Amino acid sequence: MSSEVGGNCWIWMAAPMAIRMTGQRAVVGGGGSGGEKSPSASPRAGRRKSSAGRRTERCLYGILAAVLRRRGWLLAAPLLYVTAMLMLSWDLEGVPVSVGVAILGRSPPGSVYRSPQVFQKLWPFMQADINHSNAMETAWHHKTSHRWKPCFRKKLSQTGLPPSNGYLIIEANGGLNQQRLSICDAVAVAGILNATLVIPFFHLNSVWRDSSKFGDIFDEEHFIKTLSDHVRVVRELPEEMLQRFDNNISSIVNMRTKALSSKTYYLQKVLPRLLELGAVRIAPFSNRLAQSVPSNIQALRCLSNFEALRFSDPIRLLAENMVQRMVKNSSASGGKYISVHLRFEEDMVAFSCCTYDGGQKERKEMDKAREKSWRGKFNRPGRKINPEKNRREGKCPLTPLEVGMMLRGMGFDNMTSLYVASGIIYSSEKYMTPLRQLFPLLETKDTLASSEELIPFQGHSSRLAALDYTVCAHSEVFLTTQGGNFPHFLIGDRRFLYGGHSKTIKPDKRRLVLSLDNPNIRWDKFKRNMLEILHHSDMKGVELRKPNASLYMFPMPDCMCPHS
Fold first, then answer.
1. Phi, psi for 276 (deg, rounded to 5)
2. What are the strands, taking DSSP E only, across 72-211?
3. Considering only 40-54, 262-276, 483-497, which range has the smallest mean pLDDT?
4. What residue spans carry the region label Disordered (predicted)?
């Protein structure tokens, strides 16, 4: 068979393939059910394909005969491989083609929850891997010569307070740390307006369902005293001022300021009304002050968050006892322990629209939870839910198993004390069991404190969150898994406590899921990947605030200065 004949065969084989591939729509994101299928070929196109297939088959037989006659096996091997691939793909018209993925349409790496399979493969190696590296001591590499210390007080005004321009009343909503955000920003706004701040009211949130008042969570007297030289604070509006508004705070004009308003906005829009009426109200008051304001106003935020706001005596006393118990339980690691903020409650799993390994039962429970909390938000016409894409993009809450696997890969062994801060974990018995298997010295607030100690806190989610917050603040390592206001404030507090370094593991879940979706991964490779995540978190431990970032998470350089 001549080379000319072979070349003609390749032309016949390649041309229909090129036509078919350019006419087919690629499906981005992979998977057999999430993409849009290509239009079916017409009957005429089918006949053309059959004719082309017969020509290709004849050419393939001709090539094989020529190879056998000339015994050119080694030279023909690549040619045979390519030809076979073309022939195999000829009848895959109905299979979606994913961009950058094999033609068989397998989901891209990181798309599927395969962590239990990976765990079963790696568990024997985890048991056999005796840790000699003392991971708790080597986790962080913050240089003592580059420590930061609080310095915001020198930015505060030292001239004393002028007469007040009136009373500022705000309503804080949300959970513990959203309330904290509102309180600290309200102190700053009161400083801008030279107003007297009334102890903030807490809105009874339909989600949090906590009726606690300011004094139930925070130490009112300490708050007022700490701020006294810079912002006036009173427990309630004076009687004579309240009478101006028919003894009804709701009658006081609500300014309804825009989100992230500047200092200029408050001086131009709010101050004139305050001077006119003697009192103004802003409700709701959440994220109502810009991130970047003059340094003396930022210093008020620092003062209120890091010094003035401390938990009430009942919370503080029990939380301190819980910390001491964790230290005692951690004698094998010099009193040091790990804390984890685990966001795997039912509402969090439902909102994420991610799928795990619960099958039909899980799907029904998540549909029910979404409908209960968000009333059709996820069923709107045109809205598409893509769990595989969510997982690849790092939007899925980590399961307790995934948390345990990651920490073991980082070198923390089964003698490491672990504190888990969370709400009620979804399918708790199923998902928490493997984490306890990996870390037998695991504690929660329910195991660390007695039921009698917790009685005053039951039914008050913000007070319970305050217990978790304190135990996490004093851990050697803090692991955040899903974001939110809890880690937002805690990371900033830890930077303030530990010389500028947050000592926090904040995994890039887009990278993490690649290891958790690979049942063939070797233990040494898995460990290298986890140590890279730990190293990256260590490098990001000391970070300066960028213009649009929050001071409460990044207190340098507004609240802290470098210290040799």
1. -75, -45
2. 147-150, 167-172, 196-198, 201-202
3. 40-54
4. 28-53, 364-394
